[in-house]
Amino acid sequence: MEKVVFGHTVEGLLVALEGHLDGPLRSRFKAVGLDLDQKLAPAYPKDQWHQMLVLAAQVLFPSHTPAQAHWHLGQRFITAYFSIRMGRALQSVLRFLGPARTLERTTRNLAYGSNFLHVDVERLAPTDYRLKVNEGGLHPEFIGALCHFGTLTTGVKGLTTVVEAHEGPSATYRMRW
Length: 177
Prior knowledge:
Elements: E1 4-6, H1 7-16, H2 24-31, E2 43-45, H3 46-60, H4 66-81, H5 85-104, H6 106-111, E3 119-125, E4 128-133, H7 141-152, E5 160-167, E6 170-176
């Protein structure tokens, strides 16, 4: 089975990039296989998605380190994603579940966007979790930001998220409140 990101996930990225999609970014996206003059495909290969994220982070946050840029891109992406139909539905579920149940369902929540992300969730204490993501990409801050800002929509206060470890495409995150 090919590892893919679904078209509505790419739609969320494009919403996050509004105002930046003309000029160089448009041609750079086309070079990696995303033609903005065409209707979005139902799915895009995982590697193509990761190239889109790198380009988006470079364009939106050129003065930041790659780690900072991908964290900020993740924050901007989750805000944009929650504005599209699929994202609004997911956000409603997260608000209902609260922070602990949201984190415990992270694999299911991320499955809305792709067919390859798997998360092992370990509850260390009632408000302390470790998440191990199998294929978050070369910049784990993006997935960390998705988990962080997605969990913030539950109303949790004092949430912190750090990348504890990163090896290849996998990463481990610690989330506490």
